[in-house]
Amino acid sequence: MPGAIYAEGLVKTFGDVTALNGVDLDVPEGSVLGLLGPNGAGKTTAVRVLTTLIKPDRGKAVVAGIDVLRKPNDVRHAIGLSGQFAAVDEYLTGRENLRMVGRLYQLSGRDAKARAGELLERFNLAEAADRPAKTYSGGMRRRLDLAAALVVSPPVMFMDEPTTGLDPRNRQALWEVIQELVAGGTTLLLTTQYLEEADHLAHDICVIDHGRVIARGTSDQLKARTGGERVELVVHEREHIAPALGVIRAFGKGEPTVEEHTRKVIVPVSGGAKLLAEVIRELDGRGIEIDDIALRRPTLDDVFISLTGHAAASDEPGPGGSASGPDDSVERSVEPKEVAGP
Amino acid sequence: MTVTGTTLSRRPVPAARGGAAVQSVRDSLVVAQRNLIRMIRIPEVVVFGLVQPIMFVVLFSYVFGGSIAVGGSTDPGTYREFLMAGIFAQTVTFATAGAGAGIADDMHKGLIDRFRSLPMARGAVLTGRTLADLVQTALTLVVLAIVAVIVGWRIHEGVLKALGGFALLLLLGYAFSWIGALIGLSVRTPEAATSGGLIWLFPLTFISNAFVPSGNMPTVLRTIAEWNPFSATVQAARELFGNVPQGYPVPAAWPMQHPVWASVLWSLLIIAVFRALSVRKYRSATA
């Protein structure tokens, strides 16, 4: 039986541009699929097809068991969409926005009013409820937009880059809301350029580039494809590099590499945190002083680069929201992420 | 945001209530209400919408009045009465720009995407918008009529017929807001919708009987003017207000001889065609 979101061979072209080039998706009920890819990869087009906003040139799509192409209006009863831009009327108050959406989901006036009140409470907008949305901060607008997508507790939700443009605090808060939503049984398709976000929220990840799914699997499976873990250590004295190499060679699966000027030794391993503890005991036993040691696993950034040959989000700051330039962002993509420290 | 810990209750998706027609009316009214709230929150739009027609009333009355002969008379008072139906009609057609800009803005901000992902009646977003514009047009006409009375405009055929004249004007404005809807759905930015909604209105409203009698125009222009849908409503309103000057030669073209019918038919035809085109465009609209 197909999942809550199912797509087969979706193709969509806009003039000369092939936005989708045979995309297959299958999202089991109650799970989260992260659709990961750079700008222009086809993520938004995929969401627009699945939410009935555009018709694909070819292919099949079924959402909540309903054929998207044959019965789009039935699909609309079963989905919530939070698009790339906070789609709220800025001259209406938060409450008015939610009541309007409720009425258009065909709730009665009384139900729409009650639901609006409940959502405003839940999304911490009660105090601002009767102010025009124009006066809201970016984070508040996002929350209002998300609340609007939840007016009828749709079984299937689509979120297109929900945290783009949010500061780290608001991003974190939105992640919590999304996690709660999923814990309640909602099936979610989420697009993101932020690898960290997909890692954090999604059960399964589809990496999409140039309208094609180029890899899929869990976050761990994808990382495993890029090569396994490695131990990186920095010795205190340069003369300790040689004895450290001697120790670490015994634990490694391959030849260690040395970065002389940073006194860093790197070796591929398998065995996880337990192995790390053994390495540390052994080094300690031989009196080799270390400044830093860590077990590192490839990040989704590494995965992305190895799959596509380019970084995922090279033109925008990453989810850390640091004020870093593009150079830094590329470097961050290459720099492995720390999983376990000493 | 601090997560409050209260879990959101799950609300089952409601089944559609009532028939398609009932839903269509209900959804349209919800959208119209939204647009009327916006109008109240942005009163500048309504106020600026009044400035131009009031300026036209004053400028045309006092600058042209006295120079333009209607029905063989150059009496400024006669021209002023002749003029008003034309200014009223031109004013209602400006609803085109409002509807177009509003819908283009909704597209631009992603609101049309949201509406299109909701289980609502297909034409309701556009109908709601045009209905709200109709309310604005009616308000504008009321203010404009008061200004017209101040500069000396009078009705001579009784209140009922005058109301009939205003009804025809509103119907024309409603028809034109559907043209605006199509423009708004077809352009990329609200600014383009505003200028795209206005430029063609100038030739349309000037190659007509609105400001000068069409009889003095070159043959080609005169024929266009006489069959112009806009002229039919102007002539109809002029007759219903009792503002056709004595000795004014009514052209022989059918719409000029039967202006009330012509006005109604033209407006209904415009609504039918542009509503169908707009709703079709809306279904496939992409921001």
Number of helices of chain A: 12
The geometry of chain A reads as elongated
Estimated structural class of chain A: alpha/beta
What shape does the CA trace of chain B take?
A: elongated
Give the helix proportion of chain B (percent range).
over 70%
The run of helices and strands of chain B is HHHHHHHHHHHHH
Verbal overview:
The complex is a heterodimer of chains A (about 350) and B (about 290). Chain A is about 35% helix and about 25% strand. Chain A is an alpha/beta fold and about 350 residues long. In chain A, strand 1 (about 5-15) and strand 2 form a beta hairpin. In chain B, helix 3 (about 75-95) runs antiparallel to helix 6, helix 4 (about 95-110) packs antiparallel against helix 8 and helix 7 (about 160-185) packs across helix 8. Chain B starts with 19 loop residues before the first helix and ends with a helix. The interface between A and B is large, with 57 and 41 residues.
Summarize this structure as a short list of keywords or feature phrases.
heterodimer; A: 342 residues; alpha/beta; six-stranded mixed beta sheet; five-stranded antiparallel beta sheet; 12 helices; 15 strands; B: 287 residues; mainly alpha; 71% helix; elongated
TL;DR?
The complex is a heterodimer of chains A (342) and B (287). Chain A is an alpha/beta fold.
Give the secondary structure arrangement, pairings included.
The complex is a heterodimer of chains A (342) and B (287).
Chain A: E1 5-14, E2 17-27, E3 32-36, H1 43-50, E4 58-63, E5 66-67, H2 72-78, E6 79-82, H3 94-104, H4 109-122, H5 138-149, E7 156-160, H6 168-183, E8 187-192, H7 195-201, E9 204-209, E10 212-217, H8 219-225, E11 230-235, H9 241-251, E12 257-259, E13 264-268, H10 272-285, E14 290-297, H11 300-308, H12 326-334, E15 337-340
Parallel strand pairs in A: 3-8, 3-9, 6-7, 7-8
Antiparallel strand pairs in A: 1-2, 1-4, 4-5, 9-10, 11-13, 11-14, 12-13, 14-15
Helix pairs in contact in A: 3-4, 9-10
Chain B: H1 20-41, H2 43-64, H3 76-93, H4 95-108, H5 111-116, H6 124-150, H7 159-186, H8 190-198, H9 201-206, H10 219-227, H11 229-241, H12 254-257, H13 259-283
